[in-house]
Q: What sequence folds into this?
């Protein structure tokens, strides 16, 4: 991936943080960086352009980053990295539940922000490359009865209907579909899907497991497909004949 071609939206109401991040990103090879200082500016920007990645401050003067994230998800599948001074588990879970892909707390090391951005961009590129090169007629479609996942189209079908699915949720479900009936720990799933073991967070996996179940299970309290194997991890069940 050519970093000069990556289009970034940086949303923060503190000019010093915007300037600092832009300086570091420029030094790392990123050249196309748009900035916004309010939630409305961010929404307007995403209507005008298709961004590759978004850095989104939670505490904005008009609305919070949490408030606008679901609206951003209507127009973009780009990775969204929340930036905030709040570091409680509840805040992190809220960020992931709203559609975010990562969560960075202030004060932060700018180089860690860059590393997390590059990790997200690698995951997107890997997914796009797999969709492009996988030309076998049916090898990219995974059928589990109630739901099907089409890797090339990037679609999840549930009961015959297309189900909206954020990028990281899709990637995690796709990983399970490619490895049915196998047990994976949270750390294994994080490393396989997010790609940066040193930044692992059990809550990230747990939230995304819940978001998968919201889509594929008839009853989240009694899952039939994506099971928790107590003390071991998670397993996606593929019934015989599927």
A:
């Amino acid at each position: 991936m050519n970093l000069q071609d990556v289009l970034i939206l940086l949303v923060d109401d503190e000019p010093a943080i915007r300037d600092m991040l832009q300086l570091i990103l420029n030094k790392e090879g990123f050249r196309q960086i748009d900035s916004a200082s309010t939630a409305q500016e961010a929404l307007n920007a995403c209507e005008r352009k298709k961004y590759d990645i978004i850095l989104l401050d939670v505490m904005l003067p008009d609305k919070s980053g949490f408030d606008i994230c679901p609206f951003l998800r209507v127009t973009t599948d780009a990775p969204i990295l929340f930036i905030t001074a709040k570091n409680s588990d509840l805040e992190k879970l809220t960020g992931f539940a709203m559609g975010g892909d990562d969560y960075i707390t202030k004060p932060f090391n700018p180089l860690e922000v860059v590393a997390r951005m590059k990790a997200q961009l690698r995951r997107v590129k890997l997914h796009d490359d797999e969709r492009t090169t996988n030309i076998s007629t049916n090898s990219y479609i995974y059928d589990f009865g109630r739901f099907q996942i089409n890797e090339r189209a990037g679609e999840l079908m549930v009961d015959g209907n297309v189900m909206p699915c954020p990028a990281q949720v899709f990637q995690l479900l796709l990983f399970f579909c490619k490895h049915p009936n196998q047990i994976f720990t949270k750390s294994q799933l994080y490393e396989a899907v997010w790609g940066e073991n040193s930044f692992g967070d059990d809550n990230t996996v747990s939230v995304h497991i819940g978001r998968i179940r919201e889509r594929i299970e008839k009853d989240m309290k009694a899952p039939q497909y994506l099971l928790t194997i107590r003390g071991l991890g998670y397993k996606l069940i593929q019934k015989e004949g599927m």
About this structure: Residues 35 and 200 are 28 Å apart (CA to CA). DSSP finds eight helices and eleven strands in the chain. The radius of gyration is 18 Å.
